[in-house]
Structure formats: C-alpha cells, structure tokens
Specification:
With 843 residues, this protein is an alpha/beta fold. The strands form eleven sheets. Strands 14-15-18-21-24-27-30-33 form an eight-stranded mixed β-sheet. A seven-stranded mixed β-sheet has the order 5-4-1-6-11-8-12, sandwiched between helices. Strands 16-19-22-25-28-31-34 form a seven-stranded parallel β-sheet, with no helix packed on it. Its main location: cytoplasm.
Length: 843
C-alpha cells in the first residue's frame, strides 16, 4: 500500500523555527516530524511513500533522499508554482495512485493503529475514510459528526467557538480509493475538508469516519511543539527514540560526555557528541540535540535545544526553544515560551522575557532585556478576532503600538495603493486608537479616507460610494465600557467574513508586514459629503410625507454618547419634534445600572410631554431601547417581535432574518402575515450576509443586536429604525401600546452556566448523540425541537467566554421551567463528569 505524505506546509505559526525549514522538517526529539511519521508508516507495513513538497523542498529531499536509509521507498512531487491545497497536491499525482492509498499529514505526532483504520475502511466498503480523534478543545480543527454506523453526517472546518457541535475532529489522515480523485479538478487549489468530502457527501458516496485510539498532536503552534515533546518523554506516545536508554527515562547519544557533578532528573534526552559541564542541573523534560555544548553551572528546566547550540556558564533556560547553532553567553536568562531563531547570539547576562520570539541570525547585546519580538511589536494572543471584531481593555490591550501593527497587518492584506475608510465614535480613546490604525495603514502604502467621528450607520452607508476596499470603525464596546471594539467592513459595509479575519491574523502574527518606500506611503483625505450621502439614502427609503404629517413628538436619550446626532436634524427637517436628553459627551460610558436610571427618567419625560414614544440610543447609533407612550420600556425579544409585526404589516409575505436564539414569537407573527423567517448563526456578520444574500428581506436583526434594513445599508441602524417607526405608526394609525397588545404571548427564557473551553466540544457532541436527528437543528449550537416547532431548547456555547447559554421557548411556561431544569442538570452533570475524567487522567 502507498502513502501520500503531505509535507508542503510552511508553518507560519511556528516561526521563527520555520524561517529556514519547512514545517515537516522541524525536529521533535532531534528528528524531523516527518521522520516520526515515516517510522509510524513502517510500523504499519507501509513502505512506499510519496511526499508532496512545496516550501523549501530541497531540505526534505536532501535529508531522506530515496528513503533506503530509513527503510522505505521515497519519491517526491513538487508543487512548483503555487500550493495546490491538501487535495490538489494529491490529485496532481493521481497517476501514481492505482489502488487504495493513505494520505497523512507530515506535521503531526501520533501513534494511531493505521492497520486497524485500513481494515475498517475495507470492511465498510468506504470510498473515503477520515481518521478521527477526540480532543478537549476542537476550535483549531475540523469538527466531524458520525452516525451509529460510522457514516459521516456533517463536518465543519475550523469552527468558531459558538459553532462547535462535537469534540470529534479530523486528524488529516485519510484512506481513499483512487476513483474519488476523479471528482477533483486538475491543477487547481482544493482541499479535502472544504471541497472533496462535502462533494462526496452530496453525491451519496460512502464516506466513513474511523475514531482512532491513541495519541495525536497537531504541531500547529509553538506551545504544541513543546508539549508534544514533553508527552513523548513521559511515554504518552509510542515513537522510536533513536537513542539508547542508558537508565530509566534517560536517553543518551554516542560520544556524549557528562561531567560527574552534573545532576540529571529523568526523563531527559541528550543527543550525540554533546558536552555537559560541571555542576550543570538538567531537569525532567529537557531535550538536547546533537553536537551541543553546555557550560558549567548551567540550569536547564525543560528547554528544547537544537543541534549545534552553545550554552555558556551559569545560563538559565526555562521551557524555551533554542534553534540550530544558537550561542547563549554566560549568565543569560531565556524564559518560558521564548524562542531563539537559528544562528542567533544572546549576549552575556541578557534576558529574553517569556513568550518573546527572536528571528534567525540576530544579535542580542550583553545585558539587554528583550521584552518584544526582535522584529517589531509585542506578541499577542493567538486569536485577534472575537465574536465581533477585535476587542480588548482600552489602553491596556488596545494600545497605540498594538493599533499601529494591526493597521499595518490589515493593510498588508490589501493591494498597495488601496483606499480604506476609518471612522470612530467621539471618545478620546477612540480618536487615539484610530490615529494609530491610520499610521499603520499608511506605513504599508494604503490610503485612508478619514470619516472621523461618525455613527456606524453613516459609515456603512457612505462606504460603497467611496470606491474603497473596506473600512475600520473604532468605538467603546457597547457591552463593556472599559473595552475598545475595532470592527472591519468590506467594500459594501458588511463585517468582514472569518476568512478575511484569518488573513489579517496571519499577517499580524507572522509579522510579515509590507514596508513601503517613502514615495509610496499612504495619504489621508477627509470626505466632505458623508452626512449628505446618508441623508439622501435615509430620505429615499422613508415615506417622508407620512412622517411630515405625523405630528409626532419623539424623546431621544443619547446617554452621554453623542452618536448619530444627525437624527434630530433629520426629524426636524421632516416636521417632527425631537426632544434630546443627555447629549453632552462623557469621558466614560455609563454603566448598565446608570443606563437603567436614565431609562426610567426617559419614561417620565415621555409621559410628561405626552410624546409619541421615546428611545435610548446606544452602540454608536446601532442599538436602542424603545419607551412607549406611557413610559414602559420595550426591548430584547419583545422589541424583536414588535418590529417584526410592524414591518410585516406594511410588507406582507416579506422575509425576516433573525439570530438562531431569537424568540419563536417571530415565526408566529410571520405566519399571520404570510411572511417567512430565516434564522442565522448568533453573530452579526451572519445576519448581515443573510440579509444581503436573500431577496425580499424587509428586516433583519434583533432587539439585542439592532435592526437591519437591507435596502438602506447592510448594517444595524437605530436612527433609521426610529424614523421608520414614526412612519409606520402614522400609516397604520396605531400607538406602540396597541401594537404591543397584539403580539403573541410567547415565553422565552435564558440561563447561563460556566463551561470550560475544553468541555464545549464534548458537550455539543453529547447533545447531538443523545437526541434523534430529526429533532435537531444545528445552525449554531444545538437546538432541540419538541414536536411543535414553537417549543424548543437551544444550547449555545458562548463565543468569547467559558460559558454556555440555554434558551427555552414555548407558549407554555411550565414546559419552559421543566426544560430549563432538565437541561441545566444535564449540562452541569456532563461538565462535572468531563472534569472528573480529566482530573483522573491527570493524576
């Protein structure tokens, strides 16, 4: 049997280790990762191997050559012009694959029983078998669900945290029949998970999942790189060590000399031709390559040291990675998680702080303390983007230097000379951050159209008219007043998709940022007709005559954040009386409790003035709470149902788009008007994309997120919604109180539980496996429908916090109480059992 070893990866997240090495050639226990894979294939009687290579291909070919020295037969297929993807590179060698073959990734460590997987494949008569395993946190991997016959029912490539529906993941190992390659186009980039497997499912081909027992680690980032090696030393995975075990847990190469006074605590691996000095302390978990010299009195606590390194006297190394040929001089300290690239020098008494990365061939001066990566910028968390944009503590996480680098990363994903808009709310912190973003964009040759302080609806509306590649908006986070939120829009004004976010993250973390020549530096201009553009669109999509004859009086509370201050001017232009409260700007956003006090005051003013209604505007013009004519707040699910009722009354048979967790009252209202409801994932981008993708959408969003009128612009707009309410109340000749009384009496409750990140995937799989498939909806989280489609329970993992939300919906309150009790207990019990099992494994 032949195996295809996919070894084309450049390993950007492992830099600087992969600056001069392809990822499959990065050493694990002093041997390339791909050599451990070849050892695994040999143990499973697979000795014909075709390696597909792309990044620095000669390094692998020079090392393995024809494979004879390693007991296998090796051939190579080079992707010359561009990477063809996981499936494309295999299609490229289809003429060499005339029988059942195995595809395996060259950048993971595993000891799976591949013979058992192959036997399973043949027994099932499968065309394609995916080798699966279960992991605590599946967010980095492709998630898969199989039925009781092991047929694959569904999979999702690298889900967001809210999309996880299982902890069973794709390991990148496949057993395939050659005819499946006929489904793939020649010489085109394509992927097994994104293209081939969905197509096989669609065509009804037998495609199975084999859940393998044993160890598996995708060496995708620097932490995993270290952890995999510690696991091997502690015998958690079966590998060939390639060195003699001289005493339990101590593997030594030949011609290695260790001073008798050195202390070694197993497990430790030390390579060939090493010299270990007097009184050196080597603690458990340390891995030392070939030809390494360690000076006297050195203290090594779990470092990984590559071949040819020279470590001086009294050096302290702490769980760091020291690459090929690095020299660390006397009394230097390199701390946990730090990585020093090949051929670099660390001077005497220098210190490299935790997590800092040094690129190859760099010189760190004696006595220097390095707190940042030696290219530019600080290291940051692995994911920049959360559920919505980039967020962090103002001037702590989101600092000027962070924003400069983020702007440069975003600009580096665009063509030189591209234009983008930058807008913000009116806070001083937002001005500071937006100016830093502008500096970063200019540095990579991107031109900026600075909209300055602008409500988000206006920024989205003007974007398509400016011929720009996209936009950035900076504001205080609507739910966390001490946080900044940075959002990115595409050229239509919609939040950018996950794929674009990943590109920006890649540019940020690789620190592979474009640097422009002086004459190519970006410019800043200030568009002058932003308000006019928004006003024109606003009037075009509003029945101005109805508003003009409404004689409405509206009270607007800005809660000390003057976003969308253009609204009173617009309403005044149409003959409406707008009374404005709390329009001065406060340096700090009011707390939730303070907003409630302001809302109570708003209700009193509405009553005193006998106003048509009142609104408290928030989120820089995107969201609002409504107050009816008697001063009662209308928000959340009630506001969603009310807006649906009002809009469908005017547009019967229209489409309403709401998030998956919105109240079932929306469907009941829609049925009254022959309307249709589309539910989306619980994130704003999904809502915006669904509103754009479907014809005849008359309203999108929810009371918690805001409302979208797709004909106006693709985002949430509280200002237009307020004007539309005035229009509809006039045309329909009703008050808010009258409309509220007509809404269906649906109960909708939510409970939130703590749920560790590592349990979320297993919890979703447990829920999927313990309910019949026809009772499940897997739009986002797991929704269990109880016969009557208005009765459902939704278990939704939180995208940004270690939480899980349980929603229950019904017109029967007793049913809701019972279901919430049941699912709260089920979820808590499952979390406790998983944590108990994890603690048992740890001990």
């Amino acid at each position: 049997m032949r195996a295809v070893l996919m070894a084309g990866g450049s390993g950007t997240r492992l830099r600087p280790l992969t600056c001069d090495l392809p990822k499959p050639m990065v050493p694990i226990l002093n041997r390339p990762i791909s050599e451990h894979i070849i050892d695994l294939l040999k143990r499973n009687d697979i000795e014909e191997i075709i390696a597909t290579v792309h990044y620095l291909p000669d390094i692998m070919r020079d090392y393995f050559q024809d494979g004879k020295e390693f007991g296998v037969q090796m051939t190579y297929a080079v992707e010359e012009d561009q990477p063809l993807g996981t499936a494309g590179c295999v299609k490229n060698i289809a003429d060499l694959l005339d029988d059942t073959f195995l595809v395996i990734s060259g950048d993971g460590i595993t000891d799976f029983d591949l013979k058992a997987a192959i036997d399973f494949h043949k027994k099932q008569g499968s065309k394609a078998t995916i080798v699966l395993t279960r992991v605590p946190n599946p967010i980095e991997f492709g998630v898969v669900i199989v039925d009781e016959e092991w047929r694959i029912r569904r999979f999702l490539e690298k889900p967001s945290t809210s999309e996880i529906f299982s902890d069973t993941v794709n390991t990148g190992t496949y057993i395939l029949e050659p005819e499946v390659l006929d489904y793939l186009p020649a010489d085109q980039e394509c992927d097994f998970s994104k293209h081939l497997f969905p197509l096989l499912l669609e065509k009804g081909e037998p495609i199975f999942g084999y859940i393998a027992e044993g160890y598996w680690c995708d060496v995708g980032h620097l932490d995993a790189y270290r952890e995999a090696q510690y696991d091997i030393l502690h015998r958690e995975v079966i590998v060939d060590y390639h060195y003699e075990e001289q005493s339990p847990g101590i593997w030594l190469g030949h011609n290695t000399q260790i001073d008798p006074s050195a202390k070694i605590q197993p497990p430790v691996l030390i390579g060939n031709n090493c010299r270990i000095g007097a009184r050196t302390n080597i603690e458990a978990g340390t891995i030392i390559g070939d030809n390494v010299t360690i000076g006297n009195d050195a203290d090594l606590k779990r470092p990984i040291i590559w071949n040819g390194a020279i470590i001086g006297d009294e050096v302290h190394l702490r769980a760091c990675t020291i690459s090929r040929g690095v020299r660390v001089d006397r009394r230097a300290h390199i701390l946990e998680g730090a990585v020093v690239g090949a051929l670099s020098t660390v001077g005497e008494e220098a210190q490299i702080s935790p997590g800092v990365r040094v690129w190859p061939s760099k010189q760190i001066e004696s006595g220097a303390t390095l707190n940042i990566n030696l290219i530019w910028g600080n290291t940051a968390q692995r994911n920049l983007f959360g559920q919505r944009g980039v967020t962090g503590l103002a001037n702590i996480d989101i600092t000027p230097e962070f924003a400069v680098k983020l702007g440069a990363a975003y600009g580096s994903t665009l063509k030189p000379g591209a234009h983008v808009t930058v807008s913000r709310d009116q806070r001083s912190i937002s001005r500071m951050v937006s100016r830093s973003l502008i500096a970063g964009l200019m540095s990579v040759g991107v031109h900026v159209q600075n909209l300055e302080a602008t409500a988000i609806p206006m920024a989205r509306t003007v974007l398509p008219t400016l011929n720009v590649a996209g936009g950035i908006h900076v504001r205080l986070h609507p739910d966390r007043p001490d946080h900044i939120l940075i959002e990115f829009f595409d050229n239509k004004g919609i939040d950018i998709p996950k794929g674009k976010e990943k590109k920006i993250e890649g540019a940020y973390f690789k620190e592979d940022l474009r640097r422009s020549q002086i004459q190519e530096i970006g410019t800043v201009t200030y568009p002058s007709r932003v308000i006019d553009t928004y006003t024109t669109a606003f009037e075009h999509h509003l029945n101005v005559e109805a508003v003009r004859h409404s004689n409405s009086k509206v009270v607007i509370d800005y809660a000390y954040a003057v976003s969308g201050a253009v609204l009173p001017q617009l309403l005044g232009k149409f003959g409406c009386d707008a009374v404005v409260l709390n329009a001065s700007l406060s340096p700090m956003a009011p707390s939730a409790a303070e907003r409630e006090v302001l809302l109570g005051q708003l209700g009193q003013v509405v009553q005193a003035l006998q106003a048509t209604f009142g609104v408290q505007v928030s989120a820089n013009g995107e969201q609002f709470v409504l107050v009816d004519e008697v001063g009662t707040p209308i928000r959340g699910e009630t506001l969603t149902a009310l807006m649906t009722h009002i809009i469908l009354t005017a547009h019967p048979k229209g489409i309403i788009v709401v998030p998956v967790h919105a109240s079932g009252a929306v469907e009941q209202v829609a049925r009254r008007h022959d309307g249709h409801v589309i539910r989306t994932k619980a994130n704003p981008t999904a809502l915006m994309e669904a509103c754009r993708a479907n014809d005849n959408v008359v309203l999108g969003g929810s009371g918690d997120m805001g409302f979208i009128f797709p004909d106006l612009h693709p985002g949430f707009d509280a200002m237009f919604c307020i004007a539309k309410l005035i229009e509809m109340l006039t045309v329909q000749e009703r008050s808010l109180g009258q409309i509220w009384s007509e809404l269906p009496r649906i109960s909708h409750r939510i409970q939130t539980l703590r749920c560790p990140w590592t349990v979320k995937g297993a919890l979703m799989r447990y829920l999927v496996e313990t309910h019949p498939a026809d009772a499940l909806e897997l739009i986002d989280g797991v929704k269990i429908v109880d016969g009557n489609h208005d009765n459902w329970v939704l278990v939704l993992p939180d995208a940004g916090e270690p939480l899980v939300h349980i929603f229950a919906n019904s017109d029967d309150r007793d049913w809701i109480e019972e279901q919430l009790r049941e699912y709260r207990t089920r979820v808590q019990d499952f979390i406790e059992s998983e944590q108990g099992a994890a603690e048992g494994v740890a001990t």
